[in-house]
Design brief:
Blueprint: E1 4-8, E2 15-19, E3 28-30, E4 37-39, H1 47-83
Antiparallel strand pairs: 1-2, 3-4
Bound molecules: zinc ion.
Zinc ion is lined by residues 9, 11-12, 14, 31, 33-34, 36.
Length: 84
C-alpha cells in the first residue's frame, strides 16, 4: 500500500510527496523544489493543503487498520498452533 501523499507547495505550486504518517496539524516540511518551509494547519485556506491533510489522515487510518488486522491474524495463528 502506498503510504505517501502528494503535497502542493503554496509558494512554487509544484508537487512532491511525503509520508502520510508525518502529515498532521503543525507538521512542517521544506518544499523539495524551492525549499520554502510549509506548515500544515487544520484551518488552512489552501484547498490543496486541506486535501493533503484529509488524504494523509485516511491513509494513516487505513494503515493502522491493516496493522491491527495483521496482529489479530498472527495472534489467532499462534493460538491455533498451541491448540494442536
Ligand atoms: Zn516550492
Amino acid at each position: 500500500m502506498d503510504d505517501k501523499v502528494r503535497i502542493r507547495c503554496p509558494n512554487c505550486t509544484r508537487l512532491f510527496r511525503d509520508r502520510a504518517q508525518r502529515i498532521r496539524d503543525g507538521y512542517q516540511v521544506n518544499c523539495e523544489h524551492c525549499a520554502r518551509l510549509i506548515t500544515f494547519t487544520r484551518d488552512t485556506e489552501d484547498p490543496f493543503m486541506r486535501r493533503t491533510m484529509k488524504l494523509a489522515r485516511e491513509t494513516r487510518l487505513a494503515l493502522e487498520a491493516k496493522v491491527t488486522a495483521e496482529r489479530a491474524a498472527s495472534a489467532a495463528a499462534a493460538r491455533s498452533q498451541r491448540e494442536y
